[in-house]
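Section 3.1 - Work completed
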Amino acid sequence: MKMNQIAAVLGAAALAATAPAKADDTDKARAEVKEQRQELKEQRQETKEKLKENRQELQNERKEAKQELRTKEQELNKEAKDARKELNKEAKEERKDLSEALAKLRETRAERRKELRAGLRQKYGASLQNTAIREELRTHASRIARLNQIKRIADAEEKDKLEDRAEKLIDRENARHDKQIAKLRTQAEQANTQAAVRNNALTADKAAADKAAADKGNPKAGNAPAANTPSAANPGSTDKTGTPAGETR
């Protein structure tokens, strides 16, 4: 029994000797954990401050970019305004030039119309008496006048597509007009030929009738009235008694 007691006392003593060592290890581990936590806290704080700085930098850059865009937009708006002002000025001058040109055309309208009519008389001659030809010439002149005006306006406003289209329409109208005039002149010539044939036939019939009437009044044919015989065709003639023809005593 004594031996067992001695062993128990020795074990208790050994435990008492090792207890301070374990306590030191625990304190040391706790201190290390505390230091790591502190380091992590400092790192989080640094990261937070760094993110804050980056966010502030981004905000500043965004603000500067907005300011630059606003300045650029203002410059572009000013340039566009100046360009519109210049274009309006040029357009106003072009409209003035166009108005002056149109006024000049109006002033010379009578002279140009006279020259046009003289040219038409020289070109078409007697064909101008045809109603259909005159109507076609009037229609053609009206269309060409409108297309030329469109072409002048498109040229003044630098609308190349519209000017090209007007030019093509003018060529198309000229081709149509030439074809229509040729057709109408052919029809007019045919009508004139038929009228001439009818007139010749009527003239021949009239000549034949006149000849027949003359033959009836020819003395050689035995159809002449007797001398001093009263005649209705000669109411002033007198008979043997001296009484004018057609009267009674």
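Second construct:
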Amino acid sequence: MKQYNLDYLKEMSGGDAAFMDEMIGYFLENSPSVITRLDQCLQSGDWEGFRFAIHKFAPNLAIVGLNSLAEMASRLEQLSGVSGDHGLIPATYDGFRERLSSALDEMNLDFSHLLKPKS
């Protein structure tokens, strides 16, 4: 069973394969930089930056059907808020990052034809 589910993306795109490919390609190309940003914010304790980055990323997770990760992202956003419990973020983020990496590996294999060659 796949970790992702493209039903929402299919519905949203009206079945437009080119649009779906564009969205999936965008997600796969941009996710590593989001992870890097989240890692940096976590290491430096930049909770506002962390909250902003995870907030922007959560809808992308939902679009490609990584709904449980979108829920985890929402939880991380709450924890990183002004009145959040920052002490819970590292462990929660570790689980999120591990599951996201696994999903990205799977999607990169399934959609390798959408990835631009690295120069």
